[in-house]
Amino acid sequence: MIYSFKGFTPVIDDSSFIHPQACVTGNVIIGKHVYVGPGAALRGDWGRVIVEDGCNIQENCVLHIFPGAAVWLKEAAHIGHGAVIHGAIIGRNCLIGMNSVVMDNVELGDECIVGALSLIKADEKIAKRSLLAGNPAKIIKEVSDEMIAWKTKGTQLYQQLPEEMKAHWKPCEPLNEMPEFQPSQEFLYETWNKIKRSKIQ
């Protein structure tokens, strides 16, 4: 669902995948190898929404702004399921956890990680490589090289996903019983907690 609004038409690179059940409106610019999931809403009706190369905006996320403001996701920003970004700047290679809210005029430095269900209050300026969590969100510690490597690997899966969706995704009718044979699911990534546990054992 792509809509122009008051003379502004979204600009979307051909290498990106926008799910047909996502809604992109107006003054929105989407770069290369971006994934936008179903239910996501990118509303460039009152200001500009910029999504740089390699970002992903997962299911049911909202990107919006007050009049005259902007949302800016810098390269490889990773916006988890259900998150809301309202008039904020998200730095390069950041991770915003599921169902988090980042409010107006927030400037999140590069390579920050925001825990699920966190709220970053309006006007906060967050230094790069900060790990934040809570409501309101507080800086817990600095993001380690190991943590950012884990985050980057997860984002790379989403950067590959647009091409995979275009190659393999198609409407279908459901089966009414389990088939005799199914392909095995690929094992591509481990959760951070699982990685930490394996190092302790």
Automatic annotation (TrEMBL):
InterPro entries: Hexapep, Transf_Hexapept/Carb_Anhydrase, Trimer_LpxA-like_sf. It comes from the Bacteria. It holds the Pfam family Hexapep. CDD domains: LbH_paaY_like. Gene3D superfamilies: Hexapeptide repeat proteins (2.160.10.10). This is Phenylacetic acid degradation protein/carnitine operon protein CaiE. It comes from Parafilimonas terrae.
